Structure formats: structure tokens, C-alpha cells
Amino acid sequence: MQKLIAAFSALLLALFASLPAFAQAAPPSEAARKAELIAAWEAAGKAGSAGPSDITLIDQAILRLPADYFFVPRAEGVRVLRALGNLVNDSSFIGLVVGARQNDQWIVVIRYINDGYIKDDEAKHWNADELLKNISEGVDEANKDRIARGFPEMQVIGWVEPPGYDTATHRLVWSMLAKDKDQPDNTEKSVNYNTYALGRDGYFSLNLLSGSERIGGEKSVAHKLLAELGYNAGKRYEDFNATTDRIAEYGILALVGGAVAKKLGLFALLAALALKFGKVIIFGAVVLGAGAMKFFRRKPRNG
């Protein structure tokens, strides 16, 4: 392991030694973005918790984090997402989960939206085409920020998995296919695999960021984490009290398209970054640098 870490560190040094000098300017250069991505992952490794362990998700739920999974808390997770080119809604963001095995290249983004009880009647009448149109409009809005920070614009292509809702567990799943606008059609595309767990006061969003060539094998990660998220007593969907509790201004339809999709602005390009920067950037548990590797191998800690 020490030889592997030393070789990886040398590879990083060689990579950045070959980059031309860059000035501090807006938008940041590619070299600056790479350096920030490395620093963000190293900070995440130091602050996070390894599974198996129980992760407290604010006052709402517990996530039973499996072995070989790693939880990154809020502050460090925000930094990682911004380094990857994402808009981040700080008020709803809870943390990240990443895989700690050698070839894991996925990220799961966890958010909690405290907008009240979500009525699920609309799930009986999905209109997939209209939902996809609303999501595309949300991406167009998010692109304004991406351009300002030097990241390429995104384009939504279509569904990977149309929306499906389980009325017994109050879990929602859907996924779309997206790409950089200037990305060739025959390259791997970004995939956001979205899962939701509805509760009494709002809902958790667990968004798996992956690539089109890996999603078939990695979507089980999202389903596993969704199953391991349990609401606290009194916070479950079935604990809703129509007399006293707040009801959200929108229904479940908005979790797939419309206002919420536009508001969150979470359309990350993990797959595109992996392709662009190659195995130098995506290494082991999507962790960069020898220091961060040690933290991903350390003993579990409750979060």
C-alpha cells in the first residue's frame, strides 16, 4: 500500500509540474480547478466517517452506512461539489457518500428539504415528456452559473429511468441522461440517479452521480442507501397529522420536474470530469492524495 501511495503521489507531482503557470483570474483556469478538487477531496477524507456506522442525519433520520462506504459531512461536501462544478443549496445539503473500494467512481449527494409533508396523489398520473422538459429548463438556468465559473454548459438528453413511486415505502426513483453541450455523442455521459424518501416534515434526496457506462452496475448503490435510511419515530411519512402539520406548497410531481428541480440546480458532471482528468483524478474511492487515502482507510466514526 505504501508503494502504491508513493507512486500515486509522484504521479500527481508529475502531472502538475507539467501544467503551465496560471494567474488568479475569473473564471479559474483548469489548473486551478484541478488543484481545488484535490484539496477538497483531502479535506473530505479528514472530516468524514467510514462504514459500517450509523450517521445521524440532522434531527430526522439515521443512515446505516455500509462497510466500504464513506460519509463526507456538510462543509467539506459543499467544497467538493463546488470543485466539481455544481450549484449547491447550502440550506438543504446534508453531506456526501462515496465508495471506498479500489474502483469506485460514484458520489451520492444527500439533501433534506424541510418544505412540509409532500402529498403523493400525483404519482398516479406521470407525464414523463413534460417532466423532462421542466428538468431541461432547470439545467438551462444552472448553466448561467457554470459559465461564470469556467465550466461547460450541460444538456439533458433523456431518461435513464422514468419516474417510479412506491406507495408502500414512500420512496421515489428517477434518472436522466445528460452531457456537456460540446461533448461528442459517442462518449460517456453524466447520469444523475435520483432517489427520495418522503417523511412527515419534508423529504431526503439521495442523488447518485455516475456515468452512462457504469450506471447499470452502480444504481444498486442508490437503492441500498435509500433502504438504509430510516426516519426517526415521529418523523415518518405515516406520522403525519393533518390537524397540526405543515403541508408543502407542491406535490410529488415537483420532485421530478418543475420548481424543485430548478431550485436545487443539482446537475453534476462527475463522469465528464473523470473522463477529462482520467485515472489521475479518479483513484480508489474517488479520493485524491496520500493523506486522504489514509483517512478513507481509518476506523469508523459516528457522524
What does it look like?
- The structure is a single chain.
- The chain is 33% helix and 24% strand.
- By secondary structure, it is of the alpha+beta class.
- The strands form 2 sheets. The chain has an 8-stranded antiparallel sheet, with helices on both faces. A 3-stranded antiparallel sheet has the order 2-3-11.
- The longest helix has 21 residues, at 128-148.
- Mean pLDDT is 76; it is low at 1-25 and 266-303.
Give the structure's gist in a few sentences.
It contains eight helices and eleven strands.
Please give the structural blueprint.
Elements: H1 2-17, H2 30-47, E1 49-50, E2 53-57, E3 61-65, E4 69-72, H3 74-83, E5 93-99, E6 107-113, H4 128-148, E7 154-166, E8 171-180, E9 190-198, E10 203-211, H5 215-227, E11 229-231, H6 259-264, H7 270-277, H8 290-296
Antiparallel strand pairs: 1-4, 2-3, 3-11, 4-5, 5-6, 6-10, 7-8, 8-9, 9-10
Helix pairs in contact: 2-3, 2-8
